[in-house]
Amino acid sequence: MKKMAVLTSGGDAPGMNTAIRGIVKTSLHYGVIPIGIRDGFEGLIHGWGKPFSYIDVENIIHLGGKVLGSARSKNFRTKEGRQKAIDFLKNENVEGLVVIGGDSSFAGARALLSESGIAIIGLPGTIHESIDKSSKANLEKEAILIKLLRGSTSK
After folding, report:
1. Residues 34 and 27 sit within 8 Å (Cβ to Cβ)
2. How far apart are CA 141 and CA 89, in angstroms?
3. What are the structural domain ranges in the chain?
4. Cα dihedral sign for 7, 30, 144, 114?
5. Which of 4, 110, 117, 129 is most buried per CB count within 10 Å?
6. Could you report the per-residue pLDDT of 30-62, keeping only the tens digit for each?
7. What topology is assigned to 3-151 in CATH?
8. What is the pTM of this model?
């Protein structure tokens, strides 16, 4: 894997910036270019992504909110909207996506996965107990992120 995107979706929850920081730093450590997607799935549709560096996440863990922002996206609920998101990811050669959010965010991620085949990991970021059992299984998949990243170092 050479490029991986990260986005936040839904409401604010503790630890979202810390998760972003961890994803960016781990990606860079393994030689993967992390792409921060601004404003969630809406940003994915419009291509509002930029490569992140260590400097971009150096002092974010103490900040409230989400440094990447979030937005509701009616467009992403349509097949056409999701196709625009897929086109952006493929045009940018993004091979993986981490979605930080709750159950609705994971529903969007599942739709994107079924239509794109891009590797997607859901990282719970919610203040509600809204994550269903299938989404809770993502907690067991955290090691997949490391495995995907480590696989990128074998050329």
Report:
1. yes
2. 22
3. 3-151
4. positive
5. 4
6. 999 999 999 999 999 999 999 999 999 999 888
7. Rossmann fold (3.40.50)
8. 0.82
